[in-house]
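Reopening this ticket.

The earlier resolution said the output was attached, but the attachment link was broken on my side. Pasting everything inline this time so it's all in one place.
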Amino acid sequence: MDVQDYEYYEARAKDVKMEDITSDEDNADILERLRDNDPDFTHISIRDEFIDEGDFVVREGDDLGWLGYFVGRSKELEGLYIDNFPDNLKIDSFLRGLRHNRSIQNLSISIDLGDHFHSLTPLLRNNNSISDLTFSGFNIGLQCARNIGSLLGQQCSLKCLYFEENNLGDEELVEIAVALRKQPQIEELNYFCVALGNVLEDMRNPNLVAIDLGRNDIDDEGLHTLVAGLSNCHHLTKLCLRGNALITEAGLRSLSTLFQSDHCRLEYLDLDGLNMDNHGVTVLAAGLASLPSLNKLYLSNNHIRDEGLQDLVGSLVNCNIEQLYLSNNSFSVSGLRSLGTLVQRATRLKSLCLRNNAINDEGLQCLVEGVVNCCSLTDLDLSDNHLITAVGLRTLSTFFRSDNCCMEILWLWGIHFGDDGAVALADGLMGNNSLTRVKFDSSDVTASGWAAFSRLLCDTSSVNNTYLSNHTLVEIGGIRNAGNSSTIVEYLELNELQNCATAICKILDSHPDIVVEPLFQWKLKCLPLVVTWLESARSYLGNVNESTEVFQCRQLSALYKFVRGMPQLAVDGYRGKKMKDIESKSKKRKFDQTLTL
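Inline output:
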């Protein structure tokens, strides 16, 4: 296929027929939407098979020059994903058109473009919109790394650079790292080599904000070199080192030194899966104590015990911690008591994850003693702590009923507490107006347990108790209708309405014949209130599947009960109204006669 200049396509664009330059209707539709600058068409993927809308599948009959031309002139396209180019098609014509684009923000490349990487240089240099560049899903050899390094050696507007599943070796990493000296504006990065630390150290005030080096086989020596470079990154707020299990206490000491730097402003730190023990976390805590900016800390999948947790708690007291993840460690009473102290003092803590920490009922009680005074916690995850029983769950009621409670989600997956636990939860949530979701395995909860939840959601013993029932929970158990009775599902759906509407619907649904006799002590003063309430309830009939005719009978029944219960007052009230009407007509008649005279 001949390679044509951009001007060739520009001169013929008005007259070209899409079916003549594409292999099928889907590809033709994509070119039309690009040509027309469809505001809803913002992403396109070049693939070898159709997966989703926006996939351009290159086959025989597709003119890549026209695709490049329409991509180049598009003003709405934001994302371009190059997943495949058939070997028998030249892509020069596509890249010639692509270089004219000024709207693409995200460029993802999943094939080795070889020497064609150089053809992307004009796009990166001239398109100031491109902020994200991703290389994913293909092996980057040394020559490919050199081509990418040459591409990155050009001045551009990149903010985020990602390498995913590329099997980069040390030589390849060095080639790319050296090129980053020309990209001080990059804010997010997700690959590591020793050379990267050296490059960052040599950079003049790099803008790096986030760096994700998860599962990069970083050891103590590599971390030491990296820390030297990160000390120069005064804008860094996010650091992810998860899954680098080769890091030991010595490496954590280097990291702790970074945290104590006057320029360190980390807000997000992920050290999940480092095999960190008590000694490691104690070393780390020394640095965290000097990091008041930290608000998200991930320390799951380590080997932290009570002693390490106590040191950690002491270091976090001065932090503005909002999210703390400690899953898959192991804590007992002393550690959880100290953690409760932190929760009590951390005024911004919103999310606490304690999955699979061997917490038992006594430990949970110690934790609750601190949590009960926390006015910010909205998400608590206790899943997979198999030693927690109904006894422990019952201690949560103190927290649920406290004025400080603003909890929205409680996670209890993997705790098989049965009917006793269900009753303990339901009773504890009486009067709570903040919790919206309780997630747990419902396989061992029987009708007895669900009855307790049903009573929590709608106590039908009286209108007043129905009104005072729980109107905030929208999920109990796992998938809302898995294991739940149809009645509970109905109540949960009603709870998705506003509180006032929910209460009205539950009263209509549970009390077809509303008892009004308790209102007789105020004689007829409550009658207008009952009438007004019934009128406001009319708009919710569709939520309870009640017909207008049935509702009218309900209204008449309520009025009849007042008349039957207080007949003399009703008659006197009627006579009084009649006398007022007669007096009013008499006065009007006398006034009219006066005017006539």
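Reporter confirms the inline version is readable. Residues 135 and 369 are 50 Å apart (CA to CA). The chain has a mean pLDDT of 89.
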